[in-house]
Specification:
Strand content: 15-25%
Number of domains: 2
Structural class: alpha/beta
Mean pLDDT: 88
Largest sheet: 5 strands, parallel
CATH topology of the largest domain: Rossmann fold
CATH class of the largest domain: Alpha Beta
Shape: globular
Number of strands: 11
Helix content: 40-55%
Order of helices and strands: HHEHEHEEEHHEEEHEHHHHEHHEHH
Radius of gyration: 21 Å
Strand order of the largest sheet: 2-5-8-1-9
């Protein structure tokens, strides 16, 4: 077995070891767990959308435990200020009584940052995360401070509550690699959740990998080849979301006001490489691109009034575009 095959095998085994440990504390949601882990390994940020009580916070906390990475949680509220997230300069005195300003780091300085109910904070506060999410550092005054490696933002929001919330601006949505929908559990899963949480005997997941291994797995995924035909297919998918272009899909021209940008193209190729490894393949297929289309694109399409009046959401538009170009 050559070195690349050994690395791919190790990637597959470590990924599944993490999934098994997470399953001790998070019932069901197998596809959701898979996609969140893909986003983390890819170095992306993930937006989780679902009703309260579906285990979004529990999932993120469990990932922090299983991967032995520093975890930080911020409860977003309307009165939260940018410096509550990033930190600020404070005046301190040394042993000689002389004072100076010293930067006090905020909760953003962690490996995994849970931005709980992110749409409850004002746009000014939400924007405090933009630099950290994209550039992996924050600027305070004249100084720049790097985030620890690796660094991910996993944010949650409630899809039905609109009072006291501020919709995320498109620029911030584009910084999320995936938007994932957290589905309500089945009857069997619901029974298991109740049994696990009311018996007082909930098992503790073990730590199986660390942040350094996450970075190694990212590098392994980056080495997966993408054939020109598959890359062209992914780029065609992105172009098809643009109604203003001649190559735009029929459904995009009818329902989309603004299509996806270059970050979507980067995200779909990066995540498709990881999905290929999880299927124990050392090459990216058309199916990998198709699988990643929904989580990568659903939050990047701005729909028009026709979509609203026809009851079509972004998932429906993406499905129609895939039907038009699918291979």
């Amino acid at each position: 077995m050559n070195e690349a095959s050994e690395a791919a095998k190790g990637f597959f085994e470590d990924f599944n070891a993490v999934r098994r440990e997470i399953a001790k504390a998070v019932i069901g949601q197998r596809e959701l767990v898979k996609m969140v882990l893909i986003g983390i390994i890819a170095g992306g940020n993930v937006l989780l959308e679902g009703l309260p009580g579906l285990g979004k916070t529990q999932l993120v906390k469990t990932i922090g435990r299983v991967t032995d990475m520093e975890f930080s949680r911020i409860q977003f509220t309307p009165d939260l200020m940018p410096t509550d997230i990033t930190g600020t300069d404070i005046f301190v005195k040394d042993a000689d009584g002389r004072g100076h300003f010293e930067f006090q780091k905020g909760p953003v300085f962690a490996n995994i940052l849970l931005a709980d109910e992110i749409n409850r904070a004002t746009p000014k506060t939400q924007s405090a995360l933009l630099e950290a999410m994209q550039e992996k550092h924050i600027t305070a005054g004249r100084n720049t401070y790097k985030m620890p490696e690796p660094f991910f933002v996993l944010a949650t929001q409630n899809p039905i509550e609109t009072e006291g919330t501020y919709p995320l601006p498109e620029a911030q949505l584009d910084r999320f690699m995936f938007k994932l929908k957290v589905e309500f559990p089945s009857i069997g899963e619901l029974k298991e959740i109740v049994s696990l949480t009311t018996s007082g005997e909930a098992p503790e997941p073990d730590t199986v990998i660390n942040g350094s291994r996450i970075i190694e797995m990212k590098k392994i995924a980056e080495s997966i080849p993408v054939a020109d035909a598959v890359a062209d297919y992914a780029m065609e998918l992105i172009v098809k979301t643009h109604p203003e272009l001649e190559e735009g899909a029929v459904s995009a021209k009818k329902y989309v006001a603004c299509g996806a940008g270059p970050r979507a193209a980067q995200a779909i190729i990066t995540s498709a490489r990881i999905n290929a490894l999880l299927e124990e393949r050392y090459n990216v297929s058309y199916d990998d691109i198709n699988i990643m289309a929904l989580p990568v694109l659903r939050h990047r399409l701005i729909l028009n009034f026709d979509a609203v009046s026809d009851g079509i959401d972004s998932d429906g538009v993406i499905a129609k575009i895939l039907e038009e170009i699918k291979k």
